[in-house]
Amino acid sequence: MLANLPYELQIALRYTSAQRRSERNPMLSVISLISVSGIALGVAALIVVLSVMNGFQKEVAARMLSMIPHIEVIDERGGLPNWEQTLAQARANPAVSGGAPFVTLQGMLLYDDTMRPVVVQGILPAAEKTVSSIAERVKDGKLDDLQAGSFNIVLGYELASKLGVKPGDKLSLLVAPQGGAATAWTPRRQVFTVKGSFNVGHNDYDSSVALVHIDDARAVEQLALPSGLRLSLHDLHQAPKVARELADSMPSQLMFRDWTRQNEVWFAALQSQKRMMFLILVLIIAVAAFNLVSTLVMKVNDKQADIAILRTLGASPRSIMAVFMMQGALVGVIGTAAGVAAGVLVAMNIDMIMPVVEKLLGSKLLSKEIYFLSSVPSDPQWQDILMIGGVSVALSFFATLYPSYGAARTNPAESLRYE
Fold first, then answer.
1. Which residues are paired to 230 by β-bridges?
2. Are residues 291 and 412 in the same domain?
3. Domain boundary pick from 199, 223, 252
4. 118 and 145, same domain (yes or no)
5. What pLDDT sits at residue 213?
6. Which residue from 111, 201, 385, 394 puts its CA 20 to 30 A from 181's CA?
7. Residues 59 and 86 in one domain
8. Is residue 72 a part of any domain in this protein?
9. In the predicted model, what is the mean pLDDT of the chain?
10. Predicted confidence band at 399 (pLDDT cuts at 50, 70, 90)?
């Protein structure tokens, strides 16, 4: 089969797989190994980093969406009247799968001598199950314990821990009154009974959010109407499109905000970081790829006699150039293949590797207070892997142009003069 290949490729394969001890220049094998290793290391590092960033984005988005709706509907006039009618109009869009009213208020939770800020979400438990998965994340109790008039409360896991409360304890919610003279500011106070806690795995919500029945929240804030409506979709990725469709088909005083806009700054920052990390790590691959320049220059000098003989046998300068370009490309492909294999292997087993690294270093590498997560997620995506492999091979190919061109300009008579 090899005999049927073009002779340029046969020579390139021979040069690439030649026994190292037969090389005239012993440094050539070392430089070649460094080139392959550098390309493989750069490719593997880029795959692992992008996989972790993809996993981070996917995991945080999933945990966010256990608390926030796909689309939020707010009436610009204030409260949302006839939310059932509004929900029915929204459900006319086949992309909408459910909806629930809500009330949001901010205040302070007081237990003994401990006080913590809190965002209280007033929900309708039965309807809330259609727009979020929070019911599945409640422990030491259940979401149905939030009954109208009971003034029960479910706290975020971290918030409950900081307050030092457990199910059955009573605490006070302090909220600022609406309007009134600033000089006579007196917060409203309402006693709630702790019925449980939830853990969504996102520190922002676990440490600062509490759930109560929507009627209890309205009573505390003295609201006649819900603050708005939460909608869930069959496909969350269609949220921006569906939000525009609903805005066009429903009353103009309603405002629609999809989940990507609610966290627009965070997702934009993550995408920017991902692009910058890609560019930085591509430079590592570029440095390794351009080590091929020195490798091929030394190879050309080492094979001067071979080049001269090939030229005297009728090989054209273009064929000589093709030999060394193919050799460099083969080195790049080998390094890229090794890097892809290593990178995918590490990325798919990062959850087992990181605990070992943390144990060896004796410290936690990922703080949940900063990064929202306590473990390193990974989501290798084949489009990223193919792009990385393509960039690596392309850089390796471009690195072969200069030394290959030099080989094509070799003068056979000069090369054989001292042989």
1. 72, 100
2. yes
3. 252
4. yes
5. 93
6. 111
7. no
8. no
9. 80
10. confident
Of the pLDDT bands very low, low, confident and very high (cuts 50, 70, 90), residue 170 is very high
Residue 133 lies in a domain: yes
pLDDT at 109: 92
The confidence score (pLDDT) of residue 374 equals 59
State whether 410 and 295 are in the same domain: yes
- Of the three residues 201, 228, 252, the one that is the final residue of a domain is 252
User: Of 57-71, 171-185, 312-326, which gets the smallest average pLDDT?
Assistant: 171-185
Phi-psi label, residue 194: left if phi above 0, alpha if psi -120 to 50, beta otherwise: beta
How crowded is residue 253: how many other Cβ atoms within 10 Å of its Cβ? 10
The answer on pLDDT for 406 being more than 80 is no
Pair type for strands 152-156 and 209-213: antiparallel
Q: Does residue 261 form part of some domain?
A: no
Question: Any idea which residue has 């190919």 for tokens?
Answer: 397
Q: Is 371 within a domain?
A: yes
d(CA 225, CA 86): 13
Query: Are residues 222 and 295 both part of a single domain?
Result: no
Yes or no: say if 182 and 115 are a contact pair by the CB < 8 Å rule: no
Lowest mean pLDDT among 127-141, 248-262, 305-319, 390-404: 305-319
What tokens does 58 get? 């996917």
- Taking the C-alpha atoms of residue 207 and residue 155, their distance in angstroms, rounded to an integer, is 8
What is the rounded distance in angstroms from the CA atom of residue 399 to the CA atom of residue 68? Answer: 50
Rounded CA-CA distance 4/10 in Å is: 9
Say how many C-beta atoms besides its own lie within 10 A of residue 367's C-beta.
11
Number of other residues whose CB lies within 10 A of the CB of residue 74: 16
Q: How many residues does the chain have?
A: 419
